[in-house]
Design brief:
There is one protein chain. This protein is an alpha+beta fold and about 950 residues long. Helices cover about 45% and strands about 20% of the residues. The chain contains 29 helices and 25 strands. Strands 5, 6, 13, 14, 15 and 16 form a 6-stranded antiparallel β-sheet that branches. Strands 3-17-18-19-4 form a 5-stranded antiparallel β-sheet. The longest helix is centred in the first third of the chain and has 31 residues. The two termini are about 50 Å apart.
Length: about 950
C-alpha cells in the first residue's frame, strides 16, 4: 500500500482495516515484511471459514457428546480431532445420500482429521487483527496532538482496567437503593442537557443549511420522546436489578468514550473503527479469562443448615476420607483425569491407582460415565461385596449429549476393588457413584474400608471447591406463575459466616432470580428449589449457582466499546455521505429525511456495512448524484407513485385495525373475546386462548364449518365451552402423517383436518403406539412416534378446555370421582375463567368462598356448596354461565346482553380484581391484546 497522502474523496479497500491515511507514518514500517502476511484479508477470510467449520463440527458432535466435552475437545484446545462420523447428520434426512450417510455413520473413531482448535484460530485472528492495526492504521497526529492522544488513550486504558477490576473484590459487594436513586437523578439531568445541546445543534445546522440538519432534528425528536417518557410517564425508576446492570453499562461507556477521544486524536476519522476492533480484541481476551478463571458450581443447602463448599456437577473426583477426627475430615482427592484414565483401562494394566499417599490401592473393575440405578433384588447378579452396592445395582447407560433437552447430568459410577498396599489382599468390591450424593447417603450403607485398624470412607462425587466462609440458609420460598405450577420466583435468605471465627459476616441477605449476592469474588444466583421430602425428613432445599469469575465485567465493557466504535464510525461515514451529496446539489430535505429514516429504522445493519464498505458506498452515491444532477428527470412526479402506494398500504392497514362491530341479529364475538381469563401464567383475553388453542390443533386461527365457510377461533372456543354437540363434528385436528391416517382408517383430505368423531373409533390403537413412543428416548423417536405424540397432546389440549368449562354433574354416588377429577384438573394448569368475588369478614375461612381465579368446573362445585350452606351462589359464575347458556340455545339477544352484564360486573370490581393479581399482570391490557389479535400486523 502506498505511503503517499490521498484525498478523502478517494475510495479505499473494502476491508475496514486496510484504510489509507492522510500522511501518517507507521512506527512499525520496518517490520512490514513480517506483518504484511499476518494482516492479509485473505487470512482473515480463511480463519473465519475455518471457525464456521469448527462451530458446525462442534454442533454436530453434540449428538454424541455432552456440551462441555465439546467445549473442551473442540474449542478450548489448540487442535481438535474431528471424527468422520460427526458429519453423518448432514445426510441423515436425504435418501439420495444414504450410502454416504452410512459410510460416515459407521466410520470408526480412528477415522477423521485434525483441525485447528478454538485456541489456535483465536490466536491467529488476534494476530491478524493486531498486525493489520500496526501496519495499516497509521497514526495521523503529530506534535502536541500526538502527545495528547497518547495521554488520553493511556487514561482510557487505565479507566477500562479500573472498570473491569471493579467487578472483583473481597467482602460483600452491593450498591444501595440510595445510590441508585442518585444515579437515576443524574441520568435524567444528563438526558435534559443532551436534549438542549441537540436542539441547539439542530437549530444552528438549519440556520447554516448544513446537510446533517435532518439527522439532528430526528435525533432531537427521538430524544425529546425519551425525556418525556422518563420524566412524566415513569412513576418510578427501574428496579434495583435493572439499575445494577445500567450502572455497569454506564461505567463501561465512560471508559469507551475516553478511549474514543484518545483514538480520535491519534487516528482522526479512523477512531471509530479502531475502537471497534479494540472491543473485538477485548472479547477475545474475555474468552481466555473465562477459560482460566471462570468456575461455575452449585451450592445446595437444606433450610437451617450451613455449607462451606460448592460442587461442579460437570466434574467428578474420587475421594478417600479419614473421619477419625471429631473436628474435621481429612480427604485424599483423586482428580478426574486419573479416574478417567483408570476407568478407560479397566481389565488391563493401568486400571489400578496406587500412590504412597493412599492407604490402599484402588482397582477400577468397571467405569460408567452414565448409569441406571436399580434396587439389588435377592438372587440378582451383583459385583459389589460390601458397602452401598449391596443395596443398589448400577448398569451402564448412554451418556447425556448436547442435544438432550432434559437438563439431566450423568450419574457417573464405578465398581472398584480395594487392594492391600503391600499384600494386595482383596478388601472388598464397592459401588461408588454420584447418585449417592444426589439421593442422600443416610439411606444407604457407607462405603467403609478398614486398614490396620483404621476406618476410611471411599466415594465418587462431584468435584468440590471449599470456601473460606460458610453459607447458612435461614429460609427459602417459591412462588408460581398465577394459575400454574410453574415456578416464577425462588427466594433464599442466607447468612455468610467466617469459617475460622464463626463471625457472621453478612446477615439476612436476600437472593432471588436476577438479584444475586456478590461476596469475595463469588456471585450467588438463585438456581433451584426442592420441596420438603417427607420420606427422608429433609426440609426445603435451595440450590445456589456459585460463579467465580474475576473478569465478569469484561463482557459489559467490550460490548459498550464495540457499540461505541460502531456508532462513531457509522456516523462519520453518514455525515461524509450527506456532505458530499450537498456539495453536488443533490441533497434536498426530502432525500435527506428518507436517508435518515432508513438509518434509524435499520441502524444496526447499515452500521456494520458502513464499517466495512462505507467508503465504497459513499463513492457510488457520488456517481449516482452526479448523474442525477446532469439528467434530472424525476421532479415532483417522481414522488407520486410512492405517496400513492403509501396511502393505499396505510388505508389497508387502517381497515384491518378497525374494531369489528356486531351486525344486527349477530352475536358480539369480539366483545366476548375481550373477557379475561387466567391461563398459562398470565391474564389474557379469551380471544388469545381461542387463537392459540386452535392454532395448536390445526395450525390455523380460523375454522371451516360444515358448509366450508370460515369462522373465527372464538366461535369454536364458545362451542367447546358451552358443550355444543356440533363441536365433535368440527374438523380442527390436523393429521397428515400417512401411517397415522392408515391406522385411523381415514382418507387424505385437502386441508388435512379431521374431527373428534372422525378419529374416535380407532383412536385406541394410537394410544398403544403413543405409550410405546413415550418409553423410547426422545432422540430415538421416528417421525411416526413424533406424529402420534403430537396428536395425543392435541387431544389432551381439547380435553383440558372441555373439562375446565364444563360444570360436573354431582350425585351421591359420584362425589369421590368428581373430587378426584377436580384435583387432577387443577394439576394440569387449566384456564381459569371465573374471577374471585370480594370477601367480607363473615366469609373469611368459608369453604364456599375463594379469593383466587377458578375454572368453571371448580366454581360450579363451590357454588353448589354455597347454596347447600344457605348462601348465595357466585354472581360472577352465574353471569358467565348465562353467556354459555345463551350461546348453546342460539339466543343472540340474550348472548349479547349476558356479555354486556358480565363486562359491567368486571368494570365495577376492577380495583378488587387487580389487587388479587401479581404486580406484573393487568386486567386493562386484555382489551388491547384482543384488538392486537384482530389487527395482526405481522400475520398477513
Amino acid at each position: 500500500m502506498a505511503d503517499q497522502p490521498v484525498s478523502t474523496d478517494e475510495p479505499v479497500s473494502d476491508a475496514s482495516f486496510e484504510s489509507t491515511d492522510d500522511g501518517g507514518v507507521s512506527p512499525f514500517a520496518a517490520f512490514e515484511d513480517v506483518l504484511k502476511p499476518l494482516s492479509s484479508l485473505k487470512l482473515t477470510v480463511a480463519l473465519f471459514a475455518c471457525s464456521m467449520i469448527l462451530v458446525m463440527a462442534g454442533t454436530l458432535a453434540q449428538v454424541d457428546l455432552d456440551i462441555w466435552d465439546v467445549v473442551r475437545e473442540y474449542f478450548r484446545c489448540w487442535f481438535a480431532w474431528v471424527p468422520a462420523r460427526v458429519w453423518y447428520p448432514l445426510f441423515a434426512r436425504i435418501e439420495l445420500f444414504d450410502p454416504i450417510k452410512t459410510a460416515f455413520e459407521k466410520a470408526p473413531d480412528g477415522v477423521g482429521l485434525w483441525f485447528p482448535g478454538g485456541y489456535l484460530l483465536g490466536t491467529l485472528m488476534a494476530a491478524n487483527l493486531l498486525a493489520a492495526h500496526l501496519l495499516k492504521f497509521k497514526v495521523q497526529a503529530k506534535g502536541n496532538r500526538l502527545a495528547a492522544g497518547i495521554v488520553v488513550t493511556a487514561i482510557g486504558c487505565v479507566a477500562t482496567w479500573m472498570v473491569i477490576a471493579s467487578g472483583d473484590g473481597t467482602g460483600l459487594q452491593q450498591t444501595t437503593d440510595a445510590f441508585y436513586d442518585r444515579l437515576w437523578t443524574i441520568l435524567k439531568v444528563l438526558l435534559g442537557f443532551l436534549l438542549v445541546f441537540n436542539i441547539g445543534g439542530a437549530a444552528s445546522a438549519v440556520r447554516r443549511g448544513k446537510s446533517e440538519s435532518p439527522l439532528l432534528i430526528l435525533s432531537a425528536l427521538a430524544l425529546a420522546g425519551i425525556v418525556y417518557w422518563v420524566l412524566f410517564e415513569m412513576d418510578t425508576r427501574f428496579n434495583s436489578s435493572s439499575m445494577r446492570i445500567l450502572w455497569q453499562l454506564v461505567k463501561a461507556e465512560m471508559a469507551a468514550l475516553i478511549l474514543l477521544g484518545g483514538f480520535h486524536l491519534l487516528f482522526k476519522k479512523r477512531a471509530g473503527v479502531t475502537l471497534l476492533h479494540a472491543g473485538i480484541a477485548l472479547v477475545m481476551i474475555n474468552e481466555v479469562v473465562v477459560d482460566s478463571l471462570h468456575v461455575e458450581t452449585q451450592m445446595a443447602i437444606e433450610e437451617g443448615h450451613t455449607v462451606n463448599f460448592a460442587k461442579d456437577i460437570r466434574e467428578i473426583e474420587f475421594v478417600v476420607i479419614d473421619k477419625s477426627s471429631p473436628d474435621f475430615d481429612e480427604e485424599i482427592v483423586i482428580p478426574r483425569s486419573l479416574v478417567l484414565a483408570a476407568g478407560a483401562a479397566e481389565g488391563q494394566d493401568g486400571n489400578v491407582i496406587s500412590d504412597p499417599g493412599l492407604p490402599f490401592d484402588i482397582e477400577f473393575l468397571e467405569f460408567m460415565q452414565n448409569s441406571n440405578i436399580e434396587d439389588a433384588r435377592p438372587g440378582a447378579e451383583n459385583r459389589a461385596t460390601a458397602g452401598a452396592g449391596l443395596q443398589l445395582i448400577s448398569k451402564s447407560a448412554k451418556p447425556t449429549t448436547g442435544t438432550d433437552s432434559s437438563g439431566r447430568v450423568d450419574l457417573t459410577a464405578a465398581y472398584v476393588r480395594i487392594l492391600g498396599k503391600e499384600s494386595k489382599e482383596d478388601l472388598g468390591t464397592y459401588l461408588t457413584g454420584v447418585v449417592f450424593e444426589l439421593l442422600g447417603k443416610n439411606e444407604f450403607q457407607r462405603n467403609l474400608v478398614t486398614v490396620d485398624g483404621k476406618e476410611w470412607e471411599i466415594a465418587m462425587r462431584f468435584r468440590r471447591y471449599y470456601k473460606p466462609y460458610s453459607v447458612r440458609l435461614s429460609d427459602v420460598s417459591k412462588k408460581d406463575y398465577i394459575g400454574t405450577n410453574t415456578p416464577m420466583d425462588y427466594r433464599s435468605i442466607v447468612d455468610v459466616i467466617d469459617a475460622q471465627s464463626g463471625e457472621v459476616l453478612v446477615d439476612n441477605r436476600h437472593i432471588w432470580m436476577n438479584n444475586p449476592m456478590r461476596y469475595s469474588g463469588d456471585t450467588f444466583y438463585q438456581s433451584n428449589y426442592s420441596p420438603p421430602n417427607t420420606r427422608t425428613g429433609e426440609k426445603e432445599i435451595t440450590t445456589l449457582s456459585v460463579v467465580s469469575n474475576t473478569g465478569w465485567m469484561l463482557p459489559y465493557t467490550s460490548c459498550m466499546i464495540v457499540g461505541t466504535g460502531m456508532l462513531a464510525h457509522f456516523f462519520v461515514i453518514l455525515l461524509r455521505f450527506l456532505s458530499r451529496r450537498s456539495r453536488l446539489g443533490a441533497s434536498t430535505w426530502s432525500r435527506s429525511l428518507v436517508t435518515i429514516l432508513f438509518t434509524v429504522s435499520f441502524g444496526l445493519i447499515p452500521g456494520i456495512l458502513a464499517a466495512l464498505f462505507g467508503e465504497k458506498i459513499a463513492k457510488k452515491a457520488d456517481e449516482i448524484a452526479s448523474r442525477e444532477k446532469e439528467q434530472d428527470t424525476g421532479g415532483r412526479a417522481g414522488w407520486i407513485i410512492p405517496i400513492v402506494a403509501s396511502l393505499l398500504i396505510g388505508g389497508w392497514l387502517l381497515s384491518k385495525a378497525r374494531v369489528p362491530s356486531a351486525k344486527d341479529g349477530q352475536p358480539d364475538l369480539h366483545a366476548f373475546g375481550k373477557l379475561p381469563v387466567v391461563y398459562e401464567g398470565r391474564v389474557k383475553p379469551l380471544d388469545t386462548v381461542a387463537r392459540n388453542s386452535l392454532r395448536a390443533l390445526s395450525n390455523r386461527e380460523e375454522m371451516r364449518n360444515a358448509d366450508g365457510d370460515k369462522e373465527p377461533a372464538i366461535k369454536w372456543l364458545l362451542d367447546v365451552m358451552s358443550g355444543s354437540d356440533d363441536v365433535r363434528d368440527q374438523s380442527v385436528f390436523r393429521i397428515d402423517h400417512p401411517q397415522m391416517l392408515e391406522k385411523l382408517k381415514l382418507s387424505k383430505r385437502k386441508y388435512h383436518l379431521y374431527s373428534i368423531n372422525d378419529i374416535a373409533e380407532n383412536v385406541s390403537d394410537l394410544a398403544k403406539d403413543a405409550a410405546l413412543a413415550r418409553e423410547k428416548p426422545s432422540d430415538n423417536h421416528t417421525p411416526y412416534d413424533t406424529a402420534v405424540l403430537g396428536l395425543e397432546r392435541k387431544i389432551g389440549e381439547f380435553d383440558l378446555l372441555s373439562t375446565a368449562f364444563s360444570p360436573p354433574q354431582i350425585t351421591q354416588e359420584n362425589v369421590q370421582q368428581v373430587l378426584a377429577m377436580l384435583q387432577s384438573l387443577a394439576q394440569r394448569s387449566p384456564p381459569l375463567a371465573i374471577p374471585p368475588a370480594q370477601l367480607d369478614e363473615e366469609s373469611e375461612g368459608d369453604v364456599s368462598e375463594t379469593a383466587e381465579w377458578e375454572t368453571v368446573a371448580h366454581a360450579s362445585v363451590r357454588s353448589m356448596v354455597a347454596v347447600m350452606m344457605g348462601r348465595e351462589e357466585n354472581p360472577q359464575l352465574r353471569l358467565f354461565a348465562n353467556i354459555l347458556d345463551a350461546h348453546l340455545n342460539e339466543d343472540t339477544a340474550a348472548f349479547n346482553k349476558a356479555v354486556s352484564e358480565y363486562q359491567k360486573w368486571l368494570d365495577d370490581n376492577a380495583g378488587w380484581l387487580q389487587s388479587q393479581l401479581p404486580p406484573t399482570q393487568s386486567l386493562a391490557r386484555t382489551g388491547f391484546e384482543s384488538f392486537y389479535n384482530h389487527f395482526s400486523p405481522f400475520y398477513y
